[in-house]
Inverse folding.
């Protein structure tokens, strides 16, 4: 799960042919069970992704 999440976050910064970041991405909201098993690096990557979405797409927490 964490490896898939890390890969998706890495790819999230890439431009897609399907449209903008806001059209292609969505907030990452892990469950409490997932949060308990996240590494610090994965948690930081999720936070960065969600903050980018808040800034560019006006996502709400």
């Amino acid at each position: 799960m964490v490896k898939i999440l890390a890969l998706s976050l890495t790819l999230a910064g890439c431009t897609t042919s399907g449209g903008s970041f806001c059209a292609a991405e969505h907030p990452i909201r892990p469950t409490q069970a997932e949060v308990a098993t996240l590494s610090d690096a994965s948690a930081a990557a999720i936070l960065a992704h969600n903050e980018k979405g808040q800034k560019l797409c006006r996502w709400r927490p």
Summary: The longest helix spans residues 40-57. The CA atoms of residues 2 and 37 lie 9 Å apart. The radius of gyration is 12 Å. The chain has one domain: 2-57.
